[in-house]
Design a protein that fits this description.
By secondary structure, the protein is an alpha+beta fold. The protein has helices at about 35-40, 40-45, 55-60, 110-120, 135-150, 155-165, and strands at about 10, 15, 20-25, 30, 70-75, 80-85.
Length: about 170
């Protein structure tokens, strides 16, 4: 998947200087920072432990900053991130399969929203939770905390969830 067409701004979830591209699906891509992700999650710290690709001068001159790419793999009720191999131009070598969100008419996996909320919490951004009623908010918070636990990053997320609950309308 060529994500170069994705608008890269300096705001969540696309930071122009981000060195980690996280691909959840064909339409959900993030360009974030290794240092922030590693501080927020032991899972990301492990995945990003090895040095990223050394970008060529041509790539750097073109404004490419991606040295790492993580692709979400979903199998049934389990999910994990896989590190993709990049070349000196920041392009995928392994060409990992990127899932589509609504393949064959299936409903969209709620984990996409929970992972988005986790990344927003890491970057101290408002979480997009379902505000329909209290049980919806709690369901989304619990799902987000489950994702945070899977990523071994619960502590940072508990404070964000607590803040959200105490400041809810």
């Amino acid at each position: 998947m060529d994500t170069s067409a994705v608008l890269h701004t300096d705001d969540f979830p696309q930071y122009a200087d981000g060195d980690v591209e996280i691909i959840l699906s064909a339409s959900r891509c993030y360009k974030l920072h290794k240092s922030i992700l590693c501080r927020a999650s032991r899972t990301f710290a492990t995945l990003l432990r090895e040095e990223g690709v050394t970008l060529s001068k041509k790539a750097r001159d073109a404004g490419i900053t991606t040295r790492y790419r993580l692709v979400l793999n979903i199998s049934g009720s389990t999910w994990m991130f896989t590190r993709d191999e990049l070349n000196a131009n920041g392009k995928s070598v392994a060409r990992l399969v990127v899932p589509y969100e609504n393949a064959n008419g299936r409903s969209v996996w709620l984990g996409y929203n929970y992972l988005d909320a986790f990344f927003r919490a890491v970057y101290n951004k408002p979480m997009n939770l379902n505000h329909r009623d209290d049980s919806s908010v709690l369901h989304d918070l619990l799902g987000t905390l489950d994702c945070a636990e899977m990523l071994k990053g619960v502590s940072i997320h508990i404070y964000t969830a607590q803040s959200f609950i105490t400041n809810a309308p």
